[in-house]
Structures are given as C-alpha cells and as structure tokens.
Amino acid sequence: MIRVNPELTDEQLLRLFDKGTLGQWTPDAIDWGDMERISPEQRHAIAQILTPVYLGEQTAMFGVSAVLPDMLGHGHHEEALYLSSMGLDEARHFRNLHKLYRIFQEEPASRHRIPEMFRYHARLLSHKDSTEWIWGILISDLFAKHFYGGLYSRFPDTLVGRLARRTLRDEARHQAFSERYLEKRLPTMDEDKKGQLFILRDDLFRIMEAIGERLKDPMLTLAWEPSTFLEELFEDTERWVNRLYIAQPS
Ligand SMILES: [Fe+2]
Ligand SMILES: [Fe+2]
C-alpha cells in the first residue's frame, strides 16, 4: 500500500528518525590512536568475543532490509523511515568493527569455533511476523547495551572504550524505537502470537548460553563471567516481558 502522500502522524517515531539522522557519524569521530594501552592478550580476547557482535551488525542490516517492505506494505511509514536510519547505524557499526580488527591485526573467531552464532541469526530471521523480528532485535540491542557497556567499563580511556560509548548511543535509539513499535503493536496481537515472542526469547537465550560457553576463556581474560553477563541481560529482558504483558504460552 504505497501512497504518494501518506499521513505521518506518529510524532514520537518522527522525532526518533530525526534524532537518528542528526546522530550520524563517521570513524573520524573516534581517536583510534592508543592501541598499546590494551595488552596483546586483551586484544586477542576482545577479537574473539566481538565475533558474534560483528556478525550481528551485518545480520541487523539484513533484517532491516527484510522488514522494511512489510512496514511500507502495511502503511507504517514512520516505522519505515526510522528503520532506514537504523540500517545506516548498523552499517556503521559493522564498518567500525571491521576497522578495529585491522588495527588490532586480529582475526574474528572462526565459524567452526562458534557455530551457534549462525543459529542465533537464523532464529532471529526466521520470523513470520515483523513484530517477532523487532522483539528479537530489541533483545539483541539489550545484548549490545550490556556488551558495549561492559567493554567501556573495562577500557574507558582507549579506542575500544570510545568506540563502545559512541556505539551505545546508537543502540539506545534502536531500543527506543523497538519500545515504541512494540507498545503500539502488542495490544493488537492475540495471545498465541504474543506467546511466540516468549518462545523466541527463550530460544535466543539458549543459543546465547552456548555462545557464552564457547567464549568463556577470552571473557575470563577480561574478568568477565559469561553467566553473570547473561543473568543481567535476562533480567533486563524480563522487565520488558512484564511491561509488554508477554506471557508464557500454556
Ligand atoms: Fe549495532
Ligand atoms: Fe542495533
């Protein structure tokens, strides 16, 4: 249902889109210069644990482009505008991590080492309904919040800390979008569809636990306990489950 001149009435989403437009930045915004403040052992560990996130930035681009036609097709023009800016954010995150690997002279972990990271993204992209993807991307954005937040607190005055802090601002906007979108759509969904969201959350967490197990050693190198990380993330998603009245299917 593409219209030449649709109404744009959701001021909250329009403001978020404008914020997204104004919030664009390039790698020049970061001082990449002080790599030696992070030990070679830490750099190697960071390269390993960043791997699923690096893949996630790319699959987020893929997901945005997959749900955009659905949004436009249903006349959700404000959502489509916002998602267009989010696609550019994810592209920038991907490009920045690509640059970080080159500066570190490190490689991401091999796909054989963490096969579950592909399962995570396959599950995220297996949605029948765009709302499912947006719920999944909210969980992934909460993951990004805890992950980049943890990197920032460990390496505040370094290129990694600066990159993490700047990226966090983009991820906070993505969260605000998911919140607005879900608050609008969830009341229109039947219990069965909402139950699918509960199942998706559990599936994603099961996969994240397996990834955490694979990355335990490099995480411990950075004094980061995977189970603590996942517990905090789970609590964060639980607040959303309650807030949006998502119930476990009976
Ligand atoms: Fe991202
Ligand atoms: Fe994001």
From TrEMBL:
UniProt cross-references to Gene3D superfamilies, sorted A to Z: Ribonucleotide Reductase, subunit A
Example GO molecular function: oxidoreductase activity
CDD domains attached to this UniProt entry: Ferritin_like (cd00657)
InterPro entries attached to this UniProt entry: Ferritin-like_SF, RNR-like
SUPFAM superfamilies on file: Ferritin-like
The protein's name in its UniProt record: Ferritin-like domain-containing protein
Lineage, broadest ranks: Bacteria, Bacillati, Bacillota, Clostridia, Eubacteriales
